[in-house]
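Exam revision sheet. Question 4 asks you to relate a sequence to its structure. Input first:
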Amino acid sequence: MTQPGEDAGSRHSGHDGHSGHDGHGGRGTARRTVLGAAAAGAAALGAAGLPPEAAADAPAQAPGGPAHHRPTRQPPPRELRSLLREIDPRRIEATVRKLVSFGTRHTLSAQDDPVRGVGAARDWLLAELRHRARASGGRMTVELQSYVQQPAPRVPVATRITNVLATLRGSLTPERIYVVSGHYDTRCSDPMDAAGDAPGADDDASGVAVVLELARVFAARRPAATVVFAAVAGEEQGLYGSGHMARTYRGRQADVQGMFTNDIVGSPTAEDGSRDPYTIRLFAEGVPTSETPEQAEVRRSVGGENDSPSRQLARFVRDTAENDATGMRVRVVYRRDRYLRSGDHIPFLQQGYPAARFTEPAENYAHQHQDVRVVDGKQYGDLPEFCDFGFIARVARVNAAALWSLAHAPGTPRGAKIRTAALGNSTELVWERGPDPDLAGYEVVWRETTDTEWTHVIPAGNTTRHTVDLSKDNVFFGLRAVNRSGLRSPVAFCTPQA
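Answer key, structure tokens:
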């Protein structure tokens, strides 16, 4: 029986909550959580052996309470709140208007004209990111990432495509990378029209403005992991710039643990005039684009259609960025992208990287992919007067909250497995110890198979195995890492141990 004041989920058999890691990189002492019948409705929060404030951040879920209480949520610490207050809608507006001033940024437009075309936009972005990098003391480097795209759909002649990248090197685990992007190219009604005006204020100067503002506020800070701020080209012609970037990372075997694209994040106003100024959509795939036949067979056997790394990334965004500091609701859409459409996160998914897409709550199609014109008194075209710069700033805060939390927390755990050597009604989890120097321990999360959010959190301590008295037949399990500051990683879904 649970004693008064004792959380059923936090009782451990024969363990006092101290570190189980042996200090030699091997497997730590195994732990066990005993859950009585009543405990299935409540979660133990925090982590054994962690500072009290680490456990205090996540509110407990009442027994039988709704999943939207999210016991996994992470309220923003003081440093993050300070960063979010620095995001400036006036700077975002200035970026959008400057990009529009180039007339067109079509991928096939002029690359050597100093005032009009994609080349002028590229050169301005390079100068702007270099200016922002000055605050980093050399930790942020800026580069042009170019290649020549041979003739292909919507690219009739060999064309140089150039991404503009600013990389802020991490201070503790620089090999771990997070990417945020927007695309700076534009299009008219005719996707092959490289001469007509294509202002592209919402699609996608708004996303590029988010990227530049994030680069500015991050530059003077020291995240543990590396963050890349990318303005990519060739999106409207076929995701060419982001495809090259994703392939380049995969060719280097880079450890990209999360990627966000911001594409059409400029307005909360729908075609009918209705407004939803405090919601941003986040599209996240279920079954991974890069899933192998062997992985598909395991998934069909044990489940996990709703537990791809991208879905875990999306849940992490809600946990860290849906709060009073951003003022936003994150509406996660369980779909790779909008219906039959695509964006710059998809090449990263194809390379096996977790990725998701931010897009405004309801698009106005009169103001994207349209020639600038007036028909029967109605203005068409993607013009800056149809953007809401306060809204874009709030979208930037959502991105900033998620990226800051990702880059300061430990990396997503690797090797999270369920041992299946023997049948039984308890579940033993094992995993690899992460490389993070400030790692404090791990937490097991679980939920009913019919729930879409993790509903229970169990402290596992500083170890590499843990047993829970729940059947793997009935629930889903995940694992997340915790550092000494109490910041939690995204969840790794537990799969069968081979």
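Marking note for examiners. The chain is about 25% helix and 20% strand.
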